[in-house]
């Protein structure tokens, strides 16, 4: 299992909408994440800085293939049409990233 953290900004005027979306995530989106070996997915919001921190545990062996599996799903693509306008990707993210991936520097069981 690999712990993964990521960050992204959020458009302040869209915070309520984003929270409402995530209060009832579509079952097909959740199923696709599970199929792609993502577990324990959590998103935290920090205001007034308006940044979000996402955490998940990846239980697969081919992360890139599993992420392509998620991205190829039409229902997930439709979900992103609602979520993406709420998000403000960080300028410092790597090429090809939407959420900026983070380096794990500490973990305590």
From TrEMBL:
Pfam family, one: rhaM
Cross-referenced InterPro entries: Dimeric_a/b-barrel, Rham/fucose_mutarotase
Domain of life: Bacteria
Name under which the protein is recorded: L-rhamnose mutarotase
Species of provenance: Telluria antibiotica
Gene3D superfamilies, sorted: 3.30.70.100
